[in-house]
Structures are given as structure tokens and as C-alpha cells.
Amino acid sequence: MEPGKGVIFNIQKFCVNDGPGIRTTVFFKGCPLRCIWCHNPESNQAKKEIFFDAKKCIGCGACLKTCEKCLHQIGSEGEHLYDREQCVACGVCAENCVAGALEQVGEDKTVEEILAEVKKDEVFYQTSGGGMTVSGGEPLAQFAFVKELLKRAKEEGLHTCMETCGYTTEEKIREIAPLVDLFLFDYKETDAKRHEEYTGVSNEQILKNLFLLDELGVKTILRCPIIPTLNDRDDHFAGIAATANQLKNVQEIHIEPYHPLGSGKSEMLGKEYRLKGLTFPEESTVTEWIAKIQAQTEITVKKA
């Protein structure tokens, strides 16, 4: 990461599921969790990476000619060999890949560059009640940069949302809270042991931070990924409702059904995907999940 810049892997416009109104969502690279169902595995590492889609490769050899370290080779049977271990993700190979088989994931951007892009759609925010959402990865993993971005966004009069896993210090939560109008707060698993098994970290600090935000009077929406065979359990549904019922400033509960997008992305990163073969839940199943939670709370529960 260059000084004064953040590592961003996407700036997505016209988002309607990342907070109220029409929004621009800024996706930060880097996350302290390793959720086994993550649909954005390219967000795990803070460093830049390279997607390689072997299905798109036409064997033109452009990457072989442009990679200074000769990390791209053609095997004896014509297969594309790529040495990821030595790669620094400079992006030169991706720039010269005419087939789009290679793609650099992650860019260094300044606050000014991001805000300039976000403000292009300011008229849509004004008419829809939208604004800017920071997501990831985990935006709080680049704390100083996201704090400055949110500060500048507020100075520009933008409504701000943050999607967060909540795994950070209480001090950082207190610092960032005044700059965020609405937190989209992940609630991944009620059972502490399962939470650590599925995400790599305990949920103890996460829950402390959720209730701290509530004490500070900050609005939240609980974002609950539901993964068949893992957390689609009645006791977890009861835990979601019970937690929401204790919060004074929770606005809604959003159910996020499992999405297998992470499987293909993991393959393009040369990583193993532990839930390979798991697919979308049936719509009737999602409706049943929502009904079970809604029966235990007066807070609106809906599909994200």
C-alpha cells in the first residue's frame, strides 16, 4: 500500500442492497476473518493479487513475453503454467492479456480519487436518499484510510454506510461511529465455537462492538449470511432474533442466502474452496428461514 492510499478492489455503482437508496459501494481489500463461505475471496488479502481464468486463455504468449520474472510458461501439453508463489502482482501480464484471462485485483487509490468517482452519481443519491457505502473485505482493516474517506464524505454531505464484520477494537468503533450513518453489521453465527470454526475468530469482541454501537445510538442493520448445512439451524435463527431484540437502534434484519460465487473466484486465485459443490438454496427454503426468525421478533426480517 502506498502512503496516503488505500487498496480497493472495486467501486460498484447503482447498488440498491447496500443501504438506503441508490449507492456507490467501495470495496476494501483485506479482512481479519476467513469465512469458509466467503463470496469475495479476493478481499481476504490486503495485497494486490492476480485472477487467472484458464478457460479464457487462448495461449497467445503475451504474458510470457511481458513478465520480467518469467512466471508464466507453457507446459509440454500446451497448458498455461503460472508460478503464483513468486508473483508480486505488478499487473503487467494482466495489462497485456488480450483475452482477459489475467486480471489484477486491487488498486492503490487516494481519498480524492475515490470521492471523485463516488460524486459522479450524486444526483441519484439526492433523489433516492442514497450515498456511499464502504465494504470489503473489511474496511476497518484499513482504519486510518477509511476514517479519512468517511470524514471527507461527510464534509461533502454524503450519507454513509459501513458493512463490517465488527472484528476490531472498541476504541476504533468509538472513533468511526460518528462518521457512519448506518452500520450493516454482520451476524454470522450465534454459537461461539462454531463462529470460530467457520470464520477463524471468536464472536466475543464482535458482539461487544455491536452492543457498543447500540449504546452510542448508532443505527444498525443485522446482515445474516445463512449457509445450508452450517448455520441454517433453529437455534441460530433464535439467536439472531434474541440479539436483535436487545438492540434499541436496530432497523432491520437482512438474510443473505448462500451464494456460490466464491467457488469460481477461489479457483482463479489458485485457492481451495471448502464448500465446492454447494449451491443456491431454494427460494422456498429462504422464505422458511425468514418466517422462523420473524416469528420471534417484531423487527422486520427480509432477504437482502
What does this structure look like?
This protein has eleven helices and 13 strands. With 304 residues, it is of the alpha/beta class. β11 (219-226), α9 and β12 (250-257) form a beta-alpha-beta unit. The longest helix has 13 residues, at 143-155. It starts with 5 loop residues before the first strand and ends with a strand. The mean pLDDT is 96.
**Rg of Cα set:** 21 Å
Overall spatial form? globular
Order of helices and strands: EEEHEEHEEHHEHEHEHHEHEHHE
Helix content: 25-40%
Distance separating the two termini: 32 Å
Number of strands: 13
Low-confidence stretches: none
**How are the strands of the largest sheet arranged?**
7-1-2-8-9-10-11-12-13
Count of DSSP H/I helices? 11
How big a fraction of the residues is strand? 15-25%
Structural class estimated from helices and strands: alpha/beta
Annotate the secondary structure layout.
Elements: E1 6-15, E2 23-28, E3 49-52, H1 62-66, E4 72-74, E5 80-82, H2 92-95, E6 102-105, E7 107-109, H3 111-118, H4 122-128, E8 131-135, H5 143-155, E9 159-164, H6 170-176, E10 182-186, H7 192-199, H8 204-215, E11 219-226, H9 234-245, E12 250-257, H10 261-268, H11 283-294, E13 301-303
Parallel strand pairs: 2-8, 8-9, 9-10, 10-11, 11-12, 12-13
Antiparallel strand pairs: 1-2, 1-7, 3-6, 4-5
Helix pairs in contact: 3-5, 9-11
Question: What's a quick, concise take on this entry?
Answer:
This protein is α/β, with parallel strands linked by helices. It is built from eleven helices and 13 strands.
